[in-house]
Structure formats: structure tokens, C-alpha cells
Protein 1
Amino acid sequence: MNKKFALLLVLMLALVMGSVTSASAAQIKATGQWTIEADLSAGNDFQKKGAVSEDKTFNIAQRVRTAFEFIANENLKGVLDTQIGTANWGTGAMQVGAGRSISTAAYTLGAAQAGNGNIMLRRGYVDFKWPNTKVNFLVGYQTLSLPSAVGGGSPVLDDQLAAAAAVVPITDGLSLVGGFGRLFEVNPSQTTTSGANTGSGTAGDVAFLIANVDMIKGVSLKPWLAYANLGAKTAATTLAGFQGANSSSISGVRAYWGGAALTVSAFDPFKIMADFNYGKATWNNNSNTHNDGGRQGFLFDAAIDYTGLSMMTPELFFAYSSGESGNSTNGGKSDRMPVVGSPQTYALGSFWLQGGDSLNSGQMNTPDAVMGYWALGLSFKDIKLIDKLSHTVHFIYFKGTNDVDYLKQKTLTGTQGTNAAYGKFLTTKDSLFEVDVNSKYQIYDELSVGLELGYISANFNKNAWGAVNSDYQNYGNQDAYKAGLIVNYNF
């Protein structure tokens, strides 16, 4: 072969390889939130000293979230979001040796061999636009939060799941977001051929449709619909948020929701926000002793911000969720709104409903556990009197909407019994008054240190709870306190 021709061929191959490498290269953008919190608390179970479930008073917790965007161009990127923790120091991912095998058996395989420090996947999906259109697709394991204007997130569904979604612009003031997600699959590709997880009913799916309506200046409306169908092999023991009184663990469930989130900023300096959420879950019970066991209910909330002050933003808010009627006998329905799992971010205040920046190392409640209350609150947000130092103060009164006779249902067992537990479940004769004072000092643009203080004055009815809770009958209730020191690195 002619040497000049060979040299030319080599150069051409190098050029082709170089162009391929360039085409395959992606810009990488990293973001994250690393949080460490020392938490001192007392009375989280609202029971006086001497009760069986007496609180642990001091924990240090840590959570490490790190996300990467692999950006090919303005129309295509991949997202990888990871997390280690949340875990208290000395346990799980934060105990000695968690980053290596903690098993004494050298032959142990899988997660135990890798150790408790394994990285957890929060999101992993492809984000792309269809060529020559504005239609955006998100396919893979991602976060889905249904619309919400109050509380920081949806109380119905706000979690990570495997899904395919599309964002479709219709006009300048209207776009649609729709998709499908798989919540569970206990027998993929029928890999299990015998036993309880075989046959039909091994999957659980959800479909959703959201309309983003911004046709009037200063007015944003987001109506939405969602539907879930879970097979008998997946639902009851996994998602407490679907369960009503005496729902059977061998039944599938169908559920649907509808709602809307409204934000109005046209009346400056006032900002109005409101949500309405309704849901119903119906169980396919196949036992004579479990005739229904479904759930249906609603949650309404509203808030008004005054934005005319430079030093703070006052907010008045109200929320109401339907509660149990008290007549849930064997096979009865629940009158609390069904939710998908334990939504992550919906909260009023920063103590009883787990809001704020806290890792909640002394966890109080989840939206599923406490549905059945009304709340009236006043917040003073983002108070700035000193450079780099800000404060938020909450005053909230909670009152139960669950009929006190619901506690007399002797057939309430299992997960549903847990969801009607003392300290998490408010009857019409129970109330809480919460005060939160949260402060944050911005050391650098990316680094802050915060102090979250909380107090809850508890008033649980002794006659109602004494009959079903021996600890309460013996010791009565007490107030709850917390102080959390939080270091937060955002980048």
C-alpha cells in the first residue's frame, strides 16, 4: 500500500473518531444538598414520662443528595440523582463500617455484602424534546408531584416513581402534562412461577393529566386528574394511604383523584393561593367479612400573603380535611382522603407535619397518618433585620375532624390501626397549638447554618383515648419540644 495513501487513511480515521467523540461528549452539571442536623426533642409521642413509648431525646442525622445532569444539547439531557441517608449517626448508612461489608458471613452476597452505605437512586431519567417541536418527554425514574399552591407540595402524590411523561404546549397560556407511572411490580416478566406473587394482579400503575392555565395575567390555575389501579398482590400491605377500616390485604384497589391549584398575584401586594383535592379508593374485597374497606375524602387549603413589606412576608392560612364519621364497622369505608404512600413535602408549619429544612430525626407525622383535621395559622416568613440572617415564625392551631366514636371500632387492626394512633390522629375533641421559630444564617451563598425551634401544646381527650391507650390512661398527655441545629450545603 502506498505510504501516502496509508497516512491519509489514518488521518481520515482519526478525524472520524474525533468527530464521533465530540458528538458523544456531554456537559456535566452537578447540584446537591448535603444536610447534617443535631436534634434535641422531647414529648414527640405526647405521652408523659413513664409511658412505654417514651421518646429518645437526642439524635444527629445526615442526608447526602447529589444530582448530575448530562447535557448533550439544549434538547437532550440525562439526569442522575442519588442519596445516602437520611440516617441517624450510628445507624444504617451512618454507622461504623457502613461503607463496607458489615456482615460476619464472608459468603453473604448482595446489599449486605456491599454494606449499609450504598447509594440510593432518587432519579434517573432521559429528558428530551421531539425534533422540530416544543413537546418535552421525560422517561425513567423521576419525581412526580401533583399541583399544589399551599404547603410546599402535593398531599396526594409527591414521590419518586418510574414513569413516562410528556409536556405539550398548546398555546402561550396553556400546556398539558400527562403520563403513566408504574408504582409496583412484584413479578416482572413472570420470573416467579409459583407462590403468592404469581398470576395476575402483580402490578400497580398510575396515570395523570395536568393542565397549566396562565391565560390571565397574574392568575395561574392548574386543574389535574389522576387514576391508580393496583393489583391484589401489591396494594394493601404496601400503601397505607389507600386503606380504610378493615380493608383486606388480599384485595386490589382502584382509586381516582381530582383537584386544582390556584395562585393569584394580580392584586398586588396580596397573593392568594388555594387548593382543592378529592380522592376515592375502592377495594376489590373478596371476603364476606370485608365488604368494602375503601377510602374517600377531600382536603382544601388556602393562604393569603402580603408582599408589600421589605423586611418580611406575613401569611394567613387555613386548611380542612375530611375526617372519619365514626360508623366504620366491619367492612366500613374511611372518610379520609386516600394518598399515594407518604407524600414528601406537604406541610403546615415545621413540627407536627414535618415541614422546614429539618431532617426530622425525631419524626412526627406524614400526610397519610394525620388526614382528618382543620388548621388555622399565621406565619411571618423571611424576616430580615440583619444581613445574611433570616427568620420564619409560625403560629398554628390544629383541631381534629375525626368523630370520637371512630376510636371505639374494635375491629381496627394492622396498618389502619397505626393510622389511627394516638398523637397522629385527631378527634373532634383533640387539638394542638404549634409555635415554630426557625432561623437561618447564610455563611456563604452555598452554605447555611440554621436553628429550628418548635413547641406544641397538646390537648388530647382523656375519655376518648383512655379507653384505647393504656399509656395515656396511666400517664396522660404532655407537650412536645424540639431544637434542631442544621448545617446545609447547597450547590
Protein 2
Amino acid sequence: MTDIQEQVSRCLSQAVENHECAGISVLVRRDGQDVLYAAAGHADRESGSPVRRDSIFRLYSQSKPVTAAAVMLLMERGVIDLMDPVEKYLPGFRNQKVWTVQGLVPVIRPVQILDLLGMTAGLCYPDADAPGQAVARLFEENQRAIQAGGGMTTAELCNRLGQCPLAFQPGTHFRYSTCADVLGAVVEAADGRPFAQFLEEELFEPLGMKDTAFYARDASRLVTCYKRVSGDLEPFHNLHLCVGDYSHEPAFASGGAGLVSTLDDYAAFAEMLMNGGSYRGRQILTPASVRYMTQPQLGPGPQADFWDSLSGFSYGKLMRVCVEPGRYAGMATLGEYGWDGWLGSYFANLPAEGLTILSMQNTTDTGTCAAMRKVRNLLLAADSLGQL
């Protein structure tokens, strides 16, 4: 074991020992080749089964870049225009209203596909304010239906989302929301295939992502979820954002949170982006689409609303993009991009270094955690000395 691999392994083990996570794995690749792999902790604490390289994890929001890639495919083929109003594909978005303290007011202009890619549409996730509460009621309704053995389809749920009040006028602010879910429904309507089928045929099969889907094809490798409770961890089996039953293909293919995957599957997706849309001799996306997909999108107004934990990064095409590395709380490089998920999945492509950093976890409310920031710093410091 190299010094850097030992340091990364120790960092991961400390996170498990401190109950920051149940299990965690890290894979670093360059030019399609492994640079480092390390793992610690459990896929299932109760049985004692360890995290393995082929463990299947819930991606949650790391599903979003995959959805953005699907939109890029339709854009480069001339099927959609990013200035298309969403109501062209989803009638539930017609005659939308914006919530204000004085009451509901009409939208100044319709929500466009580009708004969805930059999270500037005015849509919400379930939240405490009035627009967020409307979405919460809708999600609760669908989750009850899922638990009863049914549930809304992708198109049905996203059309209903269009009928909820917007939090602000389209294009005026950034708010992390159901935009990626709606994009999945737009892809479905524009292409004619179910969203899950589109992803399988256009991305997963060409990239060899055999374990990536909206359900677990091999349930024996699906990790158990955990949540932090009083300094320890306990299993988490609830639905979250209408996602959580992976026993079969769901009616709602959540482009914002629904996919499961493995380290190696997602590494193939990341490698395709790093190579300008090419993967092992096959062109999946055009280089022009990848360049566009990995550029920042927010302007000065919406930019001001981006998260403090991602200072130095902008947002666009459902990913963070580094624009001022010195403002980030750790080592970062200009132009790097990627995203993470609610259960701790994480990916970053660093084109200047030729590095891809991937991590998978199984603990709720994680995102880019302290352990992952430490690992990033270890890796980038070692790379600067030529030790990777």
C-alpha cells in the first residue's frame, strides 16, 4: 500500500469510527486507469458485511448529471431547444403562478428548459415556506400511493409539480429543487420513450453501466441506508423524495434522485465526460455538448444565492463548476465539475489534472462531507508532488 493510499484509508476509517458514515469507498482514476481505491465500513452493519467495490449505492442527487447528459443528447440532435417552454412538453406548466406575500401572481414568462438545467425555474423541493409546503403535500400524496403499491408516473408527478406555485419568477434566482425530475419528464415527452428506457439505451448500455438503473438488479449488493441518531447510526428505510423502493422498476423515474449505481459504473460515465463524450471508441456525446455541459450558468443575481459550502463554485447543467478555486474551503482547481448526493455519493472531474474522484456512502444528509474534503486535499496535495 502506498503512503497516499494508507492516508486515504486512515481518513475513511476515522469517519466510520466516528459514526460520520456507515461505509465509504473512494476510487480515483486517470486516463481510464485506476490510481487508487480504498474502502472502510459496512454495506450492512447488522450483518457485518463490508463495503465492496461492486456494492450498489443509492445515488440520490448524483442522478442529476446523468439527466443533464440526456438533455444534451436531445439538444445536439435538434430535438429540443433549451429556450423551449416546459409547457410545450408538460401541459401542467401552463398558466403558472408565482407565490408572493401579497398572493399569487402570473409568471412574467414561462419556465424554459434552460431554467431547469440551472435550477433557476422557481421550482421547490418539500420545504417550510408556502411553495415548498405545496410540493411537500404532493410528494406525501405520491409516497402514500407508492407504499400502497402504486404511485404516479414520471409525467403525472411532474405535471402536478407544474401546478404548484413557483417560489420566484423564472430565471431570477437559484433554488435547488425538482428541476431535474421535470427534465426527466421533458426528455420522455420529447423523445417518446420512457425516461428509464432512454437512459438505458442511450447511456447505460453504451457505457457498460450494468448496475445503474432506477431499481437494484441485484438486491444482494444493495447497501443498507443509515441515518445519524444521537452520535450513532440506525437503519433508514423510509421513502425520501418519492424514492426508496428499489425492488422493481418504479412508476416515477426520478431524474433528480432515483438512480442506483456502483463506483465502476459511475466511473464510466465520468470517463466519458472527461474524454469529450467518447468512451472506449464510441462517441456518446459530442465534444461540443460536453464543453457546454461543463460550463457555469448562473449570473450575478442567482449566483449570490449559491451555497456557502461551495464558495468558489458556480452551477449549471445540474453540476457545480469551479470558477474561483481560492474561495473554496480546500484545494480545488479551475474548471473542475461534478456533483454529489444526499446519501454521500460524490464525483468530481478535474480536467486540468486528468483526475476523476469518486466516492460512495450510505448515510443520509451527507453530501460533500468533511471526510470527502479531507480526501480531496490528500489527493490533490499528492498529485501536485507527482505521487499519484
Protein 3
Amino acid sequence: MLQLYTARNSICTQKVFLTLHEKKLAWDQKIIDLFKNEQYDPEYLKLNPKGVVPTLVHEGESIVESTLICEYLDEAFPGPALQAATPAGRAHMRLWSKFIDEGIFEATREISFSAMFRERMKNMTEEQRQTRFRNVGDPERRARYISTYEEGVESVYVFQGIASYEKMFKAMESDLADGRTWICGERFTLGDINLMPFVARLEYLDLLSVWIADRPRVQAWWARAKARPSFVDAIAGKLTGDEMAAMKSHGGAIRERVAQRRAEYLAQLA
């Protein structure tokens, strides 16, 4: 049996949920409460030394990093193939995975933090906040958390995230210009799966139209993606009404400033 360690509303785990649903696989789930620092429990760190989610355990082996977990599931189990059919297609698919892993993941974390989790941390005691900062093992990631907590949308890291999303949606609109159904062609692949949770987070934060209002091909791709049963089961169906309302409220509060900062970025390019 597959065992998946995850956290509530974890974007990276949503990628794995999508893959599991597309492959029609069964699994057991264990929730890791990040706000209680359960990810730093010594037993969990044996499975995932970085202290992050998700982690997949299968036949005694621990597989970490959501992109690798999704590829593992596609290769290890029968069912619909979720990788492109040709070597060139798979290379293109992995470029989209790299786009997410090397820029969009951090962009989403910083934007989400500035919108929602920053407010949660304001309600913590100073000792609780400092403990949470200390528990972030990576110095760069700690600097990002502190900057985003202290400055919110004005943080340079949030600005970088806004720019990363602009680059991503511009590339998506370009790739989809030839009329393809999915990001790598006519086959739905891990390239689409890797994108979907991050686009969904922007939509739930009421921020998505900041980037795609003038990008009809991305809008059409997103409509197709949301219509897949796996999206409903893996993302939309796992969120409570209160969670949806909270994301929309917090994201809406920073929407105008996010749009302004995007305009600042575009002005720099001009």
C-alpha cells in the first residue's frame, strides 16, 4: 500500500493527489501539521531529511520531492501514461516541471505567505514566531520567510514571485498558440499536473486574473484542467468552504497591490 505524508492545503501534495487520481491508485494518508512543527519530528526526518511534505512511502522505500514522486508513480504503476510519448516531448514536459520547481514554487509560497500565513503569524507570540523561523533549516528560505512576514507584498521576494508568474503565463500562452489541447500537446501529462495546483492557488486567492485576463489560451487551458475529475477530487473537493472563503478574502486584500507590482515589473521590461 502507498502511504503519503502531506499537510492541509499543501500545493506540492496536490500534484501527487492529481497523479494518484489520474492513475486510479489507492493510498493511505498521514497529515503532518506544519504549524505544530510536526515536519521536524525525528521520525519524520528519517523519511524526509528536509522536513517538508509530501513524502511517499512504497514497499519500504521513501520517495521525496513532489515532481519525482509523480514520475515514480507513473513509471511504477499501470494506467494512463502521464508522460509525453517521445523523448523530445518528455524533455519539454520536464522543462515545465523545472519552471515550477525552480521559480513558481517559491513564487507561490511567498505570495500565499504575504496574503494569508503572514496574518496567522501575526497572531503568534514573538517566541512562537522566532521558534518557527529557527526551525527553517535553510538560511535562504529563512530569509524569505522573515522578509515576507515583515514586509508583506512589498518584499523583494514577492516582487520576484510576481515576475516569475508573469514569465510562466507568457510562456504558456506562447506554447498553446499552436492550438494544442494540453501544455505538451494532445496528451494530458505531468506537465499539466505540475502547473494545475499553482494556478489553482492564484484563483482561490482571487489573483489569477491579474496575469491571465488578456491571455485567452491560458484561460481555455485552465477551463479544461478544472473540468477534469481528478482536479475536483484532488484539489477543489479537498478544500472546505471556510478555507476557500479565507483564501479569497486574504488574497483579495492584496490584489490591487499585486496588480500594481506586476505593472511595475512590466514597466521595467519596457
Protein 4
Amino acid sequence: MHDRTPNHQLTDTERLDRLRLIRSENVGPRTFRSLLNHFGDARTALEHLPDMARRGGGGAGRICTVEEAKAELAACKKQGVSLVAPGEAPYPARLATIDDAPPLLAVRGALDALARPMIAIVGSRNASGAGLKFASTLAHDLGDAGFVVISGLARGIDQAAHRATTTTGTVAVLAGGHDRIYPPEHEDLLAALLEQGAAISEMPLGHTPRARDFPRRNRLISGAALGVVIVEAAHRSGSLITARMAAEQGREVFAVPGSPLDPRAAGTNDLIKQGAALVTNASDIINAVQPIMERPFALAARESDDEPLDFDTDPSERERIVALLGPSPVSLDDLIRMSGLSATIVRTVLLELELAGRLERHGGGLVSLV
């Protein structure tokens, strides 16, 4: 079973330029894609960053230097880590289709595992014994059926799913750099799973994970998978964030029912009420994803990928858009409607504000002023 898109190989120069662009200040995955689509290549985009940031009302953001990018590539090579772009062989095909796919993904291990269909299993860090046993059994059965289990290397459900599939292939998604494993006690688990599986991260080496990095990691877990199984999750759990992201990405969402007396099952029971597929064994998942796997799969063009930008925006138009923004998130469609301006102008101004460090992007295409 394979889940692969056609391969495209970057040149060393392209990889270096793309690394410089994504490591530059205020450039995130969506901004990166807009810049690459408009300018055609990363090097040209880098040349225009200072002017765009100034138009957005900020100083020229810090641009990653050639020397810094070369040093990161050398450090990655020393650690056995490869930086791959969407469309290149080790990049998970389904992950490449999400709106904020990492422009470069740091991968290591048995990279063939990244080409196989994945099912995510996530859940409570403070899991019950029954939850741990079920996660282990479910992961084992999915592995035997040819699936790769992907999870976040966290305590509880995540580690149980990984440990059950170290021989059949499992993928750990890291919240920090490959040399900053969290939690530290799972370094042995990571070493074991790299024999038949892989680890991926969008963070640079040396990056110690912070609280806000875990939701970012979760979108990669769901984005790379056909579907996400939540085994145990209390209300306001990080696993529920993963379930929401999976739904936004068009992935299947599965939930394991639990006792209404156990707060660790409150989130999963609510997911089932909201329409998540109820899971009691691996065949429930396999039967649900089989039709998806049988459809032809290609790297789909994302909405707005080909939208042009307009850097000749009149200052009064820019002011009109900024005046409509505030600390409360608002959608792009609402900004276009309320400003009376074209989508091209609004997108351009938002991009300039982001490069100036004045704009924050939220889920569902919402934006707000910092």
C-alpha cells in the first residue's frame, strides 16, 4: 500500500534558498507559499522581503543568511536528518495538500514508512489502563493490516500506539527539533521506532518545544493521515484540537467510546455525539478509509494558489484594510466585502502586514492584528 505523489527533486541551490526564506522572520508556511507562487522562486522572494515589510508598517524583518542556512543543512546531515519539500519522495503525500504544509520538512529514519498510508492515534497523556491497552491493540492490528501509525510521541496514548508498532512502522511527529526530544524519557522509544519507522518535524535543530508548538505539531499528525482516532480525551484536551484540525483538513475522525463516569472519555463521547465515527476495533477504521484509498490521489492545487498579488496598492486602500482589522479574528471574505476592494489587494496587504510582524493568522482562514 502506497500513498505517493509524483516526485520532484529540488536542486541544492533551491533547497538553500527555500530554507533561508522559511527561516526568515515573520515568514510562515502560508506566507511562504504566497511568496513562492508570486515571485516564482525563493531567491527572488528574499530580495523583496524588506520592501514588503516596510509597506506593512514594520521594519525590515531579519532575513536568514546564506551562512546560517548552510550551517543548518550541515548540522542536519550530521544528525542523519534530511530537509524535504512537498512533492519530493520522502514528503508524506497527504501532508503536502494541507493549506499550511511545511515548505521544508525535517525527516529521518526508515523513510519508506512515510510513503505508506497512515492512521493517527492520539489521546490523553494521563491515560487509563484500559485506554492504553486499547490503543496498543488497535495500533498493532492496524500495523498488521499494512498501515503506518502516526502520533506525537507524547506520554499516555501516543507512546502506547508507537510502542505497539515499532516493528511494523510508526511515525513520530516532533514538536521541537530532532535533537530536542520531548518528553526526554521517550528518547529510547524514538530510537527504537526509527528502525522501521520515521520521525518528522518542521522545527530547526536546537528548537526546544514550547506550549504553542504542540497545536502546530498536531496539524501535521492529522494532515499526514487518512484519519485520526481519538482514544481518550477530556474536555479542552489537545487531542480534541487534533480532531478539529482533522475535520478542517477533510480527514476522517474516529472516536473510542468510554464510560460517562470517566472524565477522560468526556471528549471522545462528545465527538461521537457530533458525528465522529465510533470505533471498537481496527476493522471499523479500515472499512471507512478503504474507499478513500481506492480513489486516484494527486497533489491537488489549493484554493488561491494562483491568486496574483498587487504591490502597487494605493496607501488609502491599505489604510482602509488596516482600519477593519483588530484583535478579534476576521475572515478574508469579510475583509473583501467590508472594504469593497478586490481579493488581490486584500491578500497583498495582509501579506505585507504579516511580514511586518503585525498580523496573526488563525484556523479557518481568520486573521487579526497582533
